[in-house]
Design a protein that fits this description.
mainly alpha, 3-stranded antiparallel β-sheet, 3 strands, 72% helix
């Protein structure tokens, strides 16, 4: 169902605002990612860890679709993360030809450390907002997160 012109403009304004915020967040969040223990992981590797965390036991093929990446690239990312002890591959219980992915304990710990460091980096800035704006921000970002997860689930099923 097409949006009305006013709704389209509001959607464009919201997308533009989110894009500008992401640009400003890139620098401090990249610093967090690069200094995380046990070892820094690339942005692509971190994205992969987040997706596996969200969908424990995800198949490599579905992961490649979500990342919009060639199977060989996904395999190389997984190789590196497995070598670091952050990810494990297991045979798929439903298909001998497929592999499912799970975070190891170290992978879960690493991801939690990165998330904690990110939250710490954001606390000061978000804390400077008036409480009504913090509530609105939390509500809006929760809705955005839900929409992004739904879009990712739809893409993984296609």
């Amino acid at each position: 169902m097409p949006q009305e012109p006013a709704a389209q403009a509001l959607t464009r304004d919201a997308a533009r605002a989110v894009s500008r915020v992401l640009e400003l967040l890139d620098i401090p969040l990249e610093r967090v990612r690069a200094t995380a223990d046990p070892a820094p992981v690339s942005t692509s590797q971190l994205q992969l860890l987040c997706l596996v965390d969200r969908d424990d036991g995800i198949r490599m093929r579905a992961l490649g679709q979500l990342l919009d990446t060639a199977p060989s690239s996904v395999s190389r990312l997984c190789d590196r993360l497995q070598t670091m002890g952050l990810l494990e591959r297991r045979p798929c219980p439903h298909s001998r030809r497929e592999v499912v992915l799970r975070l190891t304990g170290a992978g879960k710990s690493h991801l939690e450390a990165v998330r904690t460091q990110r939250e710490t980096a954001l606390l000061h800035v978000i804390g400077s907002l008036p409480s009504t704006e913090r509530r609105a921000l939390a509500k809006g970002l929760t809705a955005l997160h839900t929409a992004l997860c739904a879009a990712a689930d739809t893409k993984a099923r296609s």
